Amino acid sequence: MKRRGEWGSAFIFLLPLLFTLAVAFVYAFVRTVYFSFTDYNLFHITKFVGLDNYTQLFADYRFVLALTHSLVYAIVVTAFQTFFALLLAVVLNQKIRGLTFFRASYYVPSVASSVAITLIFIWLMNRRGTINWLLTEIGRYWPLIITGLAVIVLVQSIQVFWERRHGLPARAFDPALLGISLLAGVVVTAILWRFGVVPSYPMSQVTIPWLTTRKTFLGIPLPLLSIMMLNIWTTSPTFMILFLAGLQDVPQELYEAAEMDGASPWQKLLHVTVPALRPVLFLVITMGLIGTLQMFDQVAITAGTAPLESTITLAYYVYWNVFGSGGLPKVGMASAAALVLAALTLVIVFIQRRVGFSEKGWYS
Amino acid sequence: MRKVLLALLIVGLVAGIGLAQDKVTIRLAGYSGDTPLMQDVLARFVADKIPGVEVVWEPITEDFLAFVLRTLSAGTAPDIFYVDVGWAKTVEKTGLVEPLDDYMANSAVLNKGDLIPALKDAFTFDGKLYAVPKDFNSLVIFYNKDMFDEMGVAYPSDDDTWATLLGKIAEVNNPGKWYGACINADAARFLPVAFEAGMPFLKDDGTAPFDLASAKQAADWFTSFNRLGISATSADIGAGWPGAAFISEKAATCIEGGWLIPPIRNENPTLNFGTVFLPSPWEGGPRSNYLFTCGYAMPTSPASGRPDLAFKVIEILTSPEVQNYILESGHAIPSRAALLNSAYFQQKDDFAQATKKVFEATDLPGTVPFAFGEIGQGAYTGAVNEALTLIMQGEATVEEAMNEAAAKLNQ
Q1: Residue B3 falls inside a structural domain
Q2: What would the pLDDT profile of A51-83 be if each residue is shown by its tens digit?
């Protein structure tokens, strides 16, 4: 009797979620499956077309392009954002001065509106934008930059060597010595440049049309690559928070034991931190894959400037079929594409779980 | 105490609903950019003119066609909404837009005969009129007189050919200070140029015309400004659109319509400018231009259930008083044939003269509606925009890019 009462109250508490799930997911999903077999255009269904939408999909070069873009995008962005998120989390888990400030400022890209960030980004990527300006300056002054860096490394090495020779425990990046090295680097480079030993090249303004070109890099269209960079930058901090939470749970004894065995910081990261973070890694990678495969907003906003073929992803292909052409919506095609996207997401997450990181903890 | 409050609240709500039902709410949806003008017009001319009707303006910021299709499909479309000639056919094909012929036949103040025929035809499909055109526009070349004077170059003229205009813009270009022109890879500016070179909308067999020699000639000329560096896109100049580059005096010329006039008046009222027709390919050659027009349409089953009242609102909005008011504010040219002799066109200031020029351009032979039939504006112009972008950036030749655009549309 008591059990049934418990079950009843549990059901009541679950009801709101079940209701939204039924309406927003089950109903929508069933309708989408149904539409994918028809020629529905938002207004009329004239006939069932069987698998025609699916065969047409794979015959459409835009769909094939969108599929490849989505896969490349998901793999590259997930890999980089997971790596950067872990790196940021490990760094920000140290006891350093101004920790809260750094944590907050690194998190800003994630809380700012995606639309606003993308607009600023379009502006940075303009033919006469900041990125091209930076490239121009680097093109002009690279001999000076390299000279400066070389002098810094040289002076720092000499100093560290000198200190250690005299039995002082100097670290490679000792801040006091680094300050002297930096100063030396700037002064020496300035003198060499003044007397013409190191040249700066007169170079015309770099005008790479990042967002409107059809050029590719490693087979990835530059506009898509630009969106990838933007997305890695905006999503890494979100996952950093998850890693930070996970790091709080790593038993301190493990690090102490590793130190007793003489492990280097790198070995501690690789053999203690990463294995201990397995459940979080699973979460981060899975959420990353789902998020990247379904990425829409940043493509939609850059779509105004970029050629369709250079940025189209599966989620945008779905939208484009409904509202993009200016004709009556091709909801049948869009539904079929949406289902392919859903199936793809499931399969990729499944593969990831089997061959990559699963949710099982390493020491539990 | 709480019960009393609750009871009061319920009574209040019921009373509120009761009061609200006394008035019929007519929802009117349009471009969000029209908000100041439309709110002004509604307050001046519509409020309290029809007993028991309250008109609510709904500015739409999303893609307007997407909004119309979405709300029509869901049965939540506003009582009156804008329809642009560029996608009017798509909306008509939904079967959920009310033909207005009967309303106009029975109206005392708004009949088909009052409208400019070309505009009426643009919204007529299978003999039925689906929207009341509210205004229209076309393209002219705006030029900055001070810049031409400073560089000692003759002003562009109505008799310019492609070659003479190119020469003038090359001369007025002042590197480091201003560009000779601001031209984007925009099909809406390029297509009239292609039409006057002889390109049809589609080939006789219904396929894309972009690989024809005429289309390539036009593309070569249209993109030559940017390739020569005497013109730049608005993004390169750092302006939102070519008109903004012209207003901020970073470009000596641009190809725009009457919509550029109000922003000039608001943002740079002392700008010394003139307007001329688009050039012809050769001396005495053919001309073409786009007729842009927008109309008011109604859904077959409006949420208010009162299409008769909605049409009354349209009657007021397209009345001679309102249209003259909008004309004199410089926003658009009226769709009523009788207003084309408006005294406003005789005024000598730059703004009135520019409006007159835009109006005259629509009357030239070869002017066609900015319409894309069932192909869809996005599909047709998208292919052209991409080709123009590639040519301007030097990533493809005219030949390659235009052949590819044709292949894309034919897919």
Answers
A1: no
A2: 888 998 998 888 999 999 999 999 999 999 999
- Tell me if A209 and B238 make a contact (CB, 8 A cut-off): no
Query: Residue B379 and residue A327: Cβ atoms within 8 Å?
Result: yes
Domain boundary among the residues A314, A329, A357 is at: A314
> B376–A325: do the CB atoms touch at under 8 Å?
yes
Least Cα distance to B383 among B208, B223, B247 occurs for: B208
Q: Which chain B positions have a beta carbon within 8 Å of A325's beta carbon? A: 376, 378-379, 382
Could you tell me if A2 lies within 8 Å of chain B, comparing CB atoms? Answer: no
Q: B192-237, pLDDT tens digit by residue?
A: 999 999 999 999 998 999 999 999 999 999 999 999 999 999 888 8
Which residues 179-218 of A have a C-beta within 8 angstroms of B? 207, 209, 212-215
Say whether both B265 and B304 belong to one domain: no
Decide the pairing of beta strands A220-221 and B231-232: unpaired
Instruction: Give how far Cα A281 sits from Cα of A192, A231, A250, A287, A356, Å.
Output: 49, 19, 13, 10, 10
Q: Which residue has the higher pLDDT, A16 or B360?
A: A16
pLDDT at A364: 41
Q: Are residues A244 and A294 in the same domain?
A: yes
Residue B16, pLDDT score: 53
pTM of the model: 0.81
Q: Which residues of B touch A308 (CB under 8 A)?
A: 382, 386
Domain holding B267, by residue range, is 140-289+376-410
CB B209 within 8 A of CB B202: yes
**How large is the average pLDDT for residues A26-49?**
88
- Contact state of A215 with B87 under an 8 Å Cβ cutoff: no
Quick check: B226 contacting A, CB < 8 Å? no
- H helices of B179-232, in order, are 187-196, 213-228
Q: Which residues of B touch A300 (CB under 8 A)?
A: none
Q: Which residue has the tokens 């940017």?
A: B226
- Number of helices (H), then strands (E), belonging to chain B: the values are 18, 14
Residues from chain A that touch B69, judged by Cβ atoms under 8 A, are 42, 323, 328-329
ipTM of the complex in this document: 0.79
Structure tokens belonging to residue B209: 């015309």
* Local structure of B307: helix, strand or coil: helix
> Would you call B407 an interface residue with chain A, using a CB distance cutoff of 8 Å?
no
A143 and A256 together in one domain = no
* Banded pLDDT at B375 (limits 50, 70, 90): confident
Q: With bands split at pLDDT 50, 70 and 90, how would you rate the model's confidence at A199?
A: confident
Structural domain total, chain B: 2
In the numeric block, which tokens belong to residue B132? 């009341």
